[in-house]
Write a structure and sequence with these properties.
The complex is a heterodimer of chains A (133) and B (584).
Chain A lengths: L3 E5 L3 H13 L3 E5 L5 H8 L3 E5 L1 E2 L2 E2 H10 L8 E5 L4 H9 L4 E4 L5 H12 L12
Parallel strand pairs in A: 1-2, 1-3, 3-6, 6-7
Antiparallel strand pairs in A: 4-5
Helix pairs in contact in A: 1-5
Chain B lengths: L1 H46 L7 H17 L2 H15 L4 E8 L2 E8 L5 H20 L25 E4 L15 E9 L2 E10 L7 H38 L3 E6 L4 E4 L1 H6 L10 H8 L5 H11 L3 E8 L2 E12 L2 E11 L1 H37 L6 H33 L7 E3 L1 H17 L3 E7 L6 E3 L1 H21 L1 H4 L4 E10 L2 E8 L6 H6 L3 H11 L7 H11 L4 E5 L5 E8 L2
Parallel strand pairs in B: 2-3, 12-14
Antiparallel strand pairs in B: 1-2, 1-5, 4-5, 6-7, 6-10, 8-9, 9-10, 11-13, 14-15, 15-17, 16-17
Helix pairs in contact in B: 1-2, 1-5, 2-3, 3-5, 9-10, 9-15, 10-16, 11-12, 12-16
Classes of the chains: A alpha/beta (133), B alpha+beta (584).
Chain lengths: 133, 584
């Protein structure tokens, strides 16, 4: 059973990068570009992790984060905030509101993002781990 | 920011130096005038023989005049002259009576004790002298025209009776002191403003020479004062017009803490257009405790240092105050207060920050896509098929193109702002252009469930336009219309959105319009729509992507053609963007 990732991002080009990368890594990916759909879809889809953009058309990702964390059906799901413009205020607010991490999109390559997700979900497929016999 | 404030302080200091310079300049002119007069006086003096002729007396004359001019005040000048004359002439007392704004002012100076009788006698004599002076058309009176008999003119009302100096020597003054007198009129131009009298008992008091001497001194003083006041008024007039047109509020508080200058803007800022403040405590009241102004002003008055205070909230405005010491010959004669309206600057600063933030975002987004997409292809060369590679290469291409357009927009915006934006006009059939572009627009609109129709008027003639740039304007208006109509509730509810693009001839101009049935635009937003900085703020608040420069540039393009662009409400809902182009 593949782990599920819900990506709430309105930039299709970014979504393509992330979703292709995550699919290669063996995840199932669902995209939402409308923030209003985030909570209902999350409850329905029950992803193992949510990637949430802060700047969505007409709404603030931080509000969606609060929604997700306050709803019992989704509160356990780790959320990683994504943004291209982060102020210290926002970072603090996000982490205080329960985000698992806060990532600057322009600093991270898709492969690095998928590594982070692996780490959060504990699904590291690193075959470098050698067991001494 | 610090640089700007320093610049402002220098500017304000400059203004004040200008004011004091004009004042000082007038004085300098005057001092030059009396230097010429002094020469004449010296000549006269040398011809006269005085009982107490002393070289030093002549040397004090320039100082007298200098003081006169410096004081700029008639009464104080006459005081100075009186005490001087008392020393140099062999008189028991010197008095004067002059017409002032408040009435008549009388002062007497004497070396002896003053009794009530003496004072009233002095007043009486001076009074009579004044009448005579008026009656005799200003000739100096000698004691042949006796006080105790003969014709006496009408008594004049005595108000504002002045004080009498305390004597330095103990001597009982008596009626005999009024046996002799010399009285000369004080003339300002053609008008006789008063009289100066010297009373005494010595024989040569009432000589012709003394009369001439006194006349000369008085006339010179009077003319110096008149010139001085005229010059001040003239120079002040120049400065006044500058002051009143300034956007900064300017106040001048003199060394007595009275308000001597207050310009229109200052009255506006302090909300006292009807009632001008007279002194510093009036200003304190008007400021309603926003600033300890009395403290600061006295501090500046004492220390001579410039002080400033930013972000003072007064009558719904953010003002910055600067306090400047006003010096005249190394003496501080007042404090200038300059008030600047900082509210706009605050606003602008906030908007500029928002604009920068928005720019950062707009640049990072496509660059993230470019870098990430390239990395994906590089890392997955084995795994990817042609389609996968194409997907990412196209993303790179699109993002790069978007960045290039952004650069062009920024450049255009900068050119428009600096007035260097140009258009290359050539004759063009406008309706044809609209029809061609509409084909593309239709496809785009359809994809968003929006109908796009054309409404072109045949009356529209050929126009001279920069086709590429006008198409740019159209693209922007149509894409906005699509964006906002698409997001409007109507499409969510399943209704069709519509956009109409059209042309017509109206009032000698060609009008092009783009109408939609989207949610419309509130009135306060309408005004700001074409403003670069405000667009930025709206962008960041609503988390829209895009620089918001499109409309700003559209405006620049249209205006470069000699036209106008604006937005109206569409009926029953939505917006109509209209721009005009001049007909050949």
């Amino acid at each position: 059973m593949n782990k599920k990732v819900l990506i709430v991002e309105d930039d299709m080009a970014l979504f393509n990068m992330y979703s292709v990368e995550l699919k290669i890594k063996g995840y199932d990916v669902l995209n939402i570009n409308d923030g209003l759909q985030a909570l209902p879809k999350a409850k329905d889809y029950q992803p193992d992790i949510v990637l949430l953009d802060i700047m969505l058309p007409g709404m603030n990702g931080l509000n969606i984060l609060t929604e997700l964390k306050s709803d019992p059906q989704t509160t356990e799901i780790p959320v990683i905030m994504l943004t291209n413009y982060g102020s210290e205020d926002n970072v603090k607010k996000a982490l205080e509101s329960g985000a698992a991490d806060y990532i600057m999109k322009y600093k991270i390559l898709p492969s690095e993002l998928s590594d982070k997700i692996d780490a959060v979900l504990g699904t590291s497929t690193d075959s470098d781990v050698k067991i001494a016999i | 920011m610090n640089e700007t404030s320093a610049l402002e302080s220098y500017l304000q200091l400059g203004i004040f130096l200008l004011v004091t310079f004009f004042t000082f300049f007038g004085v300098v002119k005057l001092l030059r005038a009396y230097r010429r007069n002094k020469k004449k006086l010296l000549e006269i003096g040398q011809q006269l023989t005085l009982a107490k002729s002393d070289a030093s007396h002549w040397q004090s004359l320039p100082e007298i005049f200098r003081r006169t001019v410096y004081l700029g005040d008639l009464e104080q000048s006459l005081d100075t002259i009186s005490s001087y004359l008392l020393n140099i002439l062999d008189a028991s007392s010197v008095s004067y009576l002059i017409k002032t704004q408040q009435g008549f002012s009388f002062r007497a100076r004497t070396n002896g004790n003053i009794t009530k009788t003496y004072l009233s006698k002095s007043k009486e004599c001076t009074n009579k002298a004044y009448s005579k002076v008026l009656g005799k058309e200003g000739d100096a009176i000698l004691s042949e025209d006796t006080i105790y008999g003969g014709q006496v003119g009408e008594a004049l009302l005595m108000e504002n009776v002045g004080s009498v100096e305390k004597p330095t020597e103990q001597r009982n003054s008596g009626i005999s002191d009024f046996l002799k007198h010399v009285c000369v009129p004080l003339r300002f131009g053609d008008e006789i403003a008063g009289v100066l009298c010297a009373f005494g008992s010595s024989d040569n008091l009432d000589s012709d020479q003394n009369a001439v001497y006194m006349s000369k001194i008085l006339d010179t003083s009077a003319s110096l004062l008149t010139d001085f006041k005229a010059l001040i008024a003239k120079e002040r007039g120049k400065v006044e017009s500058v002051l009143q047109s300034m956007e900064e509020g300017v106040l001048l508080v003199d060394s007595n803490y009275k308000v001597s200058v207050i310009n229109k803007t200052a009255s506006l800022f302090l909300s006292c257009q009807d009632q001008k403040p007279l002194n510093i405590s009036d200003i304190t009241t008007l400021l309603k405790g926003a600033l300890p102004i009395q403290e600061i002003v006295s501090n500046v008055m004492d220390s001579g240092e410039i002080k400033s205070q930013k972000r003072v909230f007064v009558s719904n405005r953010y003002l910055s105050f600067t306090f400047l010491p006003v010096k005249f010959e190394r003496e501080i004669i007042g404090v200038g207060i300059i008030m600047r309206n900082d509210s706009e600057e605050e606003n602008l600063r906030n908007l500029r920050e928002d604009f920068t933030a928005m720019m950062v975002h707009e640049l990072r987004a496509p660059l993230t896509v470019i870098r990430g997409s390239a990395d994906m292809v590089l890392k997955n060369r084995e795994r990817f098929n042609q389609q996968d590679i194409d997907l990412f290469l196209n993303q790179i291409k699109e993002s790069a193109w978007g960045l290039l357009k952004l650069v062009s927009d920024l450049l255009d915006s900068a050119k428009i702002e600096s007035g260097k934006f140009t258009v290359n006009k050539s004759p063009c059939l406008l309706n044809q252009v609209l029809q061609e572009e509409a084909e593309n627009y239709k496809v785009f609109a359809e994809s968003k469930n929006i109908d796009l129709t054309l409404d072109l008027s045949e009356a529209v003639p050929q126009v001279e336009i920069d086709k590429e740039k006008i198409v740019q304007v159209l693209n922007n208006l149509v894409s906005n219309a699509v964006k906002f109509t698409y997001k409007g509730e109507i499409t969510h509810m399943g209704e069709r959105g519509f956009i109409k693009v059209g042309s017509r001839l109206q009032g000698g101009f060609v009008q092009v319009f783009v109408a939609d049935n989207g949610p419309g635009i509130p009135n306060d937003v309408k005004k700001q729509l074409f403003n670069k900085f405000v667009q930025a703020r709206e962008s960041s608040i609503s988390n829209e992507s895009g620089t918001g420069l499109g409309l700003v540039i559209a405006k620049g393009i249209v205006e470069a053609h000699g036209g106008k662009i604006w937005v109206e409400d569409n009926v029953p809902k939505g917006s109509v963007f209209i721009f005009t182009l001049p007909v050949q």
